[in-house]
Design a protein that fits this description.
Blueprint: E1 10-13, E2 18-21, E3 29-34, H1 45-63, E4 67-72, H2 90-98, H3 102-119, H4 135-147, E5 151-154, E6 157-160, H5 162-166, H6 179-184, E7 201-206, E8 222-224, H7 226-238, E9 242-248, H8 252-266, E10 272-278, E11 281-283, E12 286-287, H9 298-303, H10 315-323, E13 331-333, H11 335-352, H12 368-380, H13 385-403, H14 411-428, H15 439-460, H16 464-476, E14 479-484, E15 487-492
Parallel strand pairs: 3-4, 3-9, 9-10, 11-13
Antiparallel strand pairs: 1-2, 5-6, 6-7, 7-8, 11-12, 14-15
Helix pairs in contact: 1-14, 2-3, 3-15, 4-7, 7-8, 10-11, 11-13, 12-13, 12-14, 15-16
Length: 493
């Protein structure tokens, strides 16, 4: 029997605003799509929190023996500055400012994204498609929407007709917005737009002469709208209907709402059975914002080189901190919170490392199978990692009591305890076994990882002088870098 057959999951479905029993379309198989980053800048901690939440979901589903196809895209074209249909493409703007090719921008920040996620012990997705790699699929999707009467072409650009769509469908059902309210709260067009209505959104934009990123289409040389890529790629790899679609809460409207509309307009069915949204990350009680300076990036948090936190924190401590809050809750990143999580993390690791040395008895004074079931019950309840962690601390208490002779455990229960703890701590939560006595080494590892990423960025930008300088100066202080097919590692002489 597979584990999923004895574990019934409930997922909070944003579409229905309630927890629902999860039933995959195909038994034993799950298709999951998560909106990935727009690679025009370094990945920020809010992104990391979202992707970390879905990494945990992915890990747990795999732990239950589901065969999961996890698709997470890379947006490397078409995402305009204000997330709508005006302004400049974010990647093109970055390329213009730095006087480099747009694909150099894409390469630099895709490398950064992968390095950050690797540092935090993420599992890679099954497929990581790019928007530019699926232009043909997006053009075909637009053609279907036009053919079905839900889009129109004006001066080489194509727009989705939201009003026409809403006559037979429900635009706004995910975000719980009504089109009449959207109309009331939207300014009238100033006569400079090609849209019929302000609520319409671009499926294809005609490129201005200065626009670098452009592709031929039946309508013009141009580029796809931002919302279109996810519809094209999710359905290509997961089918016209699939199980789970995830992303940040900020994507619910308009991005995910537009995805639903595009799929229903082109194919006639709603694409996703369970919509999941991870909530926002705040910094010291306020929204993270580059414009106000209330922001810290992953490298700064890992190295301690920032003005917000008293020390550097290891990747596993940060993962543990994130897991102590539900993915649907706003999470406030504070120094006090991280310090408390660090203490709890090391306490848990100390207990885990005592297991092999515990003395076994003929019988157990603790009901280990019942404790194990509570761990599964927590994760089966919409991936409730805070309750899971509470049960793991309960096990840590048991372990210390057994060590002190206050409780007893049989050999079978000891093996069950060890197997369950290892599964949830390392396989599901994605933590790494770092103890407090290793913290100095862990800090060194975090600092060197930062330098390795800076060196990789330098190499990606063809700044080989800086790349060599980082390698050589590390060597001078006894840290040797070794480049291999799986990345760069280091050793201390």
């Amino acid at each position: 029997m597979q584990l999923y057959q004895s574990n019934q999951i409930k997922i909070y479905n944003s579409l229905t605003s309630k927890k629902e029993i999860f039933k995959p379309i195909n038994e034993g198989h799950i298709g999951m799509y998560v909106c990935g980053p727009t690679v025009y800048s370094n990945v920020h901690l809010g992104n990391v929190r979202t992707f970390m939440s879905f990494d945990m979901v992915f890990r747990y589903l795999r732990h239950l023996d589901y065969k999961v196809r996890y698709v997470r895209n890379i947006t490397d074209a078409g995402h305009l500055e204000n997330d709508a249909d005006a302004g400049e493409d974010k990647i093109t703007k970055k390329a213009r400012l730095e006087q480099i090719e747009p694909m150099e921008v894409v390469q630099r920040y895709t490398v950064d994204f992968h390095n950050v996620l690797r540092t935090f012990n993420f599992l890679p997705p099954s497929i990581e498609p790019t928007a530019t790699g699926h232009i043909i699929e997006q053009i075909e999707l637009i053609s279907k929407i036009i053919k079905n009467g839900f889009a129109y072409e004006v001066n080489g650009s194509v727009y989705f007709d939201v009003h026409k769509f809403n006559e037979t469908n429900d635009y706004g059902k995910l975000s719980k917005r009504k089109l009449d309210d959207l109309i009331h709260n939207t300014r009238t067009l100033d006569g400079q737009s090609d849209k019929k209505n302000p609520q319409d959104f671009a499926l294809w934009k005609k490129a201005e002469p200065q626009h670098i990123m452009r592709w031929p289409s039946p309508w013009s040389d141009g580029f796809p709208g931002w919302h279109l890529e996810c519809t094209a790629m999710s359905t290509k790899y997961l089918g016209e209907q699939f199980d789970i679609h995830g992303g940040g809460m900020d994507l619910k409207f308009p991005h995910h709402e537009c995805e639903i509309a595009q799929n229903e307009a082109a194919i006639g069915v709603s694409p996703v059975n369970y919509w999941m949204h991870a909530n926002m990350l705040e910094l010291n009680g306020q929204r993270m914002s580059k414009s106000t300076g209330n922001t810290v990036n992953p490298d700064e948090l890992l190295s301690g080189n920032n003005s917000f936190f008293s020390k550097a924190y290891s990747p596993s401590v940060i993962r543990f901190f994130v897991a102590q809050s539900s993915y649907r809750s706003v999470l406030d990143l504070t120094d006090d919170g991280l310090l408390a999580s660090e203490k709890g993390f090391y306490r848990l690791m100390d207990a885990v490392n005592l297991i092999d040395g515990l003395k076994v008895s003929a019988t157990s004074s603790i009901d280990i199978p019942a404790w194990k079931q509570k761990c599964y019950d927590a994760m089966n309840d919409d991936f409730n990692s805070p309750i899971l962690i509470a049960h793991l601390f309960e096990a840590a208490k048991y372990i210390n009591q057994i060590k002190e002779g206050q409780e007893t455990i049989s050999v079978d229960d000891l093996n069950l305890l060890k197997e369950t703890i290892n599964s949830f701590v390392f396989d599901v939560l994605g933590l790494e076994n770092v103890t407090k006595s290793d913290s100095g080494t862990d800090k060194l590892s975090g600092a060197v990882d930062v330098l390795i990423r800076l060196r990789q960025d330098a190499r990606a930008n063809k700044d080989f002088a800086m790349s060599d300088k980082i390698r050589d100066e590390l060597a001078e202080v006894g840290i040797q870098l070794k480049d291999g097919k799986d990345g760069t590692t280091f050793s201390v002489n």
